[in-house]
Structures are given as structure tokens and as C-alpha cells.
Amino acid sequence: MGDSDSCFREGTVLGLGNPLLDISANTGNDFLEKYGLKHNDAILAEERHLPIYSEMVEKYNAEYIAGGSCQNTMRVAQWVAKKPNVFAFMGCIGKDEFGKILETKAKEAGVLVNYQLHDTAPTGTCAVVITDNGANRSLCANLSAANHFSREHLDTPTSQSIINNAKYFYITAYFLTVSPPSIMYIAKHAHENKKTLLMNLSAPFLCTLFKEPLMEVFPYIDVLFGNETEITTLAAELGFKSDDMEKIILHIANLPKKNEERKRRVIVTQGNDDVLYAADTMIIKYPVDIVKPEEIVDTNGAGDAFVGGFLAQYIQKKSAHSCVLCGIYAATQVIKQSGCIVPEKMEFIDV
């Protein structure tokens, strides 16, 4: 990895997101219909969804996995880095058994965690409903304690130390539903200190229901991740009418930016189709490694893993080629596992 030691310092990257305990199970499509869920979608739980968690545990041999999109990315990035505590994470959990499990799992993965602890709300959970032998997954998150992260947590001495040490910040758009003031604090800190802000669109509904806070932070975003559905939803919300994905992402890459010296990068994943990397007027296409259907166990976390692989190379100032290829490698490894977990060995070879 060359000069990776100088890049892989403690707390080089700070992620902000919603720590959730994933409850993952294979079900039939009738289970999806029962709860009004869609293939490969992600939603926040409403009252009608609340029985889903106990039903999955009681009827479907569910597994527990330390999750939440941003925390997944930090874990995968740590796996690539092979050096503990390079990637830090903040979010809110409950003072309960699930919270203890989450913290233990994150620390085992080498993530430097600084959770805010809520006195009464339980640790958040996410139903990961897997269908069609792993080909499709649907997420239904009950944020609970994660929903109570407060801007004040960033003012604690430990938080301030982590924020000041970090050179890169990664925030999932899911966090827009929780604490826009925290996002804006980090965005302005990154801008004022010439640090890098990376963000993930996370889910189509965030581009519509949370458009206002998303567009407030948008000028500060240096690197944006999304899948094809999220990107087209954002473009439609912005009134940019085109069916040409390349035109759409170039338009988004060139939206107004606070730091005009550094062009925004936009990276779009499209399932089995090419990953698109856009900057300024340039687009690069990267074919993905096609995984045989019989090798796919669970597509949950593929996008989180892609960003984890990308980030681990990006902070080493590796080429776009290296960053995207490592992202593809990480995603293809994760979809061969049950849940967003990684194999024991990390065998990505930089080219």
C-alpha cells in the first residue's frame, strides 16, 4: 500500500450516521407484500411496520448484525485498511443490550466509536428482508435511539478531539432525518479547514422528503455517492429533465460548490451495469465484476461496502481507477455473505 501508514492515522475519517442492529432474514415475497415493502428499497418504519421485527425473529430464523449504513461503510473501510481506529463513527444508541452488542461488534471491526447514549430510547433496529435467494433485499428501519442524536454531542471534548483530528468526513443522507444541524456543523468545519466532505444519497425518499436540508449541505459536498434510482430522483427534484444518466451526473457534479478550487466527484453504482465516475466534464465507466447468481447470498450492504472500499483508497490519494476497483471488490465480497459482513481475508490488489 506504499505510503498508507501516513494516511492511515487514528481517526483520519469520521462517519456520522444511524447505528442500527440489523435483523436479517430470508422470507417470501408474500412477507414483503404484507408489510407494503418493495424490492431493493429502504424506508423508515411507520406504526404498521412495527410488528415486523418480532415476526422475523419468531418465524424466519433471523440473524443479528451490527449495522446502519454509515457504520457498515466504516467497518468495511477498516477491513481494507488493516489498521485499527483509522475510521471513526458517531451516532446515538440506547443504554441496553442491543447497544452493547453494537459497540462490541464495531470495536471488534476496529472502528473508533464515540456513541451518544440515550437514557430511555432503545437502540435502533433495521429489518433486512431478503427475498429471491438473496437477489433482492428491502430495508425497514426503526431509528429509535438513533433518532435522538443531538448537535450538542459534537461539543463534547472527545467529539471535538475526533473532529479536529479527522481529515475526511462521510455522512449518509439517512442522517438528514435525524440531525441536519450536526451535518451543517461538520460541513462548515470541513470547508473552513480545507477538509473533504463525502456524502451518500442513501435512498430515493430522502431526495424528495428531505430535499431542503439536502440542498443546504449540497454546496459543501466534495464527493457524492448514489445509485441510479437515487440520482434520477434527485435530478427530477431539481427540475433537470433528461433520460441520459451521463448528462444527469455531470449536471449534478457541476452544481454550485463552496470550494470552487476542488471539483465535485459523483460516483454512481448501477447494480450489474457500469459504475460511473464523473468530475468536471469527464465521465469514466468501470465494468463491475459479475457475481454468479448461485454465489449471491445477500445484496444488503453492497452499496455501503462499495463506499468503504472506495474510501480506504481515496484517503491514500489513490487514482479514481484504484478507488472504484476497490469499491467493486468490497461490494462483490459482501454480497457473498449473509448481511453486511466481510470475509476474513482482504485480498484486493492495487493496480
Keywords summarizing the entry:
alpha/beta, UDP-N-acetylmuramoyl-L-alanine:D-glutamate ligase, 9-stranded mixed sheet, 5-stranded mixed sheet, 13 helices, 36% helix
Concise summary:
The chain is α/β, with parallel strands linked by helices. The protein contains 13 helices and 16 strands.
What about the largest sheet?
A: 9 strands, mixed
Structural class: alpha/beta
**Percent range of helical residues:** 25-40%
From the N-terminal CA to the C-terminal CA, the straight-line distance is 10 Å
Radius of gyration: 19 Å
Number of continuous helical runs: 13
Can you describe this structure?
The model has no long low-confidence stretch (mean pLDDT 91). The chain is globular and about 55 Å long. Strand 11 (168-172), helix 7 and strand 12 form a beta-alpha-beta unit. Helix 4 crosses helix 12, helix 10 (228-237) packs across helix 11 (245-253) and helix 12 (302-314) runs antiparallel to helix 13. The strands form 3 sheets. The chain has a 9-stranded mixed beta sheet with strand order 7-5-1-11-12-13-14-15-16, sandwiched between helices. 36% of the residues lie in helices and 23% in strands. The protein has one domain: UDP-N-acetylmuramoyl-L-alanine:D-glutamate ligase. The protein has 351 residues and is an alpha/beta fold.
